[in-house]
Amino acid sequence: MSLPSRCRVLIVDDSAVVRQLLGEILAGDAEIEVVGTASDPYVAREKIKLLKPDVLTLDVEMPRMDGLMFLHNLMRLHPIPVVMISSLTQRGADTTLQALALGAVDFVSKPTLDVQRGLRGFAEEIITKVKMAARARVRVPERPLLPAPGSTGTQSAPDTTVLTAARARFRTTDRLIAIGASAGGTEALRVVLEGMPADAPAVVITQHLPASFSAAFAERLDRHSAMAVREASDGEAILPGHAYIPKGGQHLRVIGDGARWRCRIDDGPAVNRHKPAVDVLFHSVAQTVGANAIGAILTGMGDDGARGLLAMRQAGARTLIQDEATAVVWGMPGAAHKLGAAEEIVPLERIAERLLTLARANA
């Protein structure tokens, strides 16, 4: 679907080279107009007022005010879609996840070496994500962000949702929940896992992330959930009370081992241009788990997971998708809806409750 008019973009980055490269990449698309650039958040603030962009691209490490503080202020006072330009490092992963928690729509990773060639290699992804952001629904966080690991800041009090979930005992050993997500999914998954009790059915997850981000993402989800959230290891048993995500850049499958299920880490080719891919996970769940599974697709761009969710439903699994009103991007859920893959459409805040109800109904 083309945009009704050209998407107006403001590029915010302290590097003149990056500003020029991003400008050339984005201006090369007929549906995008680069209305300006800014070298730091103070210049950006004035240009936002003057130029009224539809989307910002935003670097994190900048002089005078870092990108996270600027993003926090922007979302509080003048929320507009933001695509973060982040580095492929552990620190970059932690910071990018914080930015997504603050309301950024998505991110693009930039290399630490040979930036010019690296950014041009990501040109198609950059253009696609900026145009997607122009259509996205900006979600302003309802509560403060927890500090990153190693931060000296004071942490917020434990979230009452997590504590309530931990006390709401749930006993089952033969159900499996499979969840797929992409753009907007890091925060949507946090909301869902916050609502799961410590002994919930096992959860397997595919979220589109680059390789260097998955460890930080698992740690972040683990801090927010009564469940134990971890990167999956090849061959490990899938246990109740645990949630598993693949290492970035590798697929996660579920395989059978007698009466048990195990994780299989698959280094095969990308599927639907993604690795990990939701369809890979869902098709394995349909084949291995069948009617004992519950599947859900959350916010995300594209159609990854739609065919896999349909396969799960055809195998007897219960299936649902996040509703359009609460999704940052309704691409993946919408594609599943068009295929008839989902039995139910559920608001984000009710998905955890509904997953547990469906698991109990079949127990």
TrEMBL record:
Domain of life assignment: Bacteria
Subcellular location: Cytoplasm
Primary location: cytoplasm
CDD domains per UniProt: CheB_Rec (cd16432), REC_CheB-like (cd17541)
Response regulatory domain span: 8-125
Enzyme category, top tier: hydrolase
PTM comment: Phosphorylated by CheA. Phosphorylation of the N-terminal regulatory domain activates the methylesterase activity.
Residues spanning the membrane: none
PROSITE patterns: CHEB (PS50122), RESPONSE_REGULATORY (PS50110)
NCBIfam families cross-referenced by the UniProt entry: PRK00742.1 (NF001965), PRK12555.1 (NF009206)
Family membership noted in the UniProt record: Belongs to the CheB family.
Record text about domains: Contains a C-terminal catalytic domain, and an N-terminal region which modulates catalytic activity.
Protein's recorded name: Protein-glutamate methylesterase/protein-glutamine glutaminase
Organism: Stenotrophomonas koreensis
Taxonomic lineage: Bacteria, Pseudomonadati, Pseudomonadota, Gammaproteobacteria, Lysobacterales
Gene of this entry: cheB
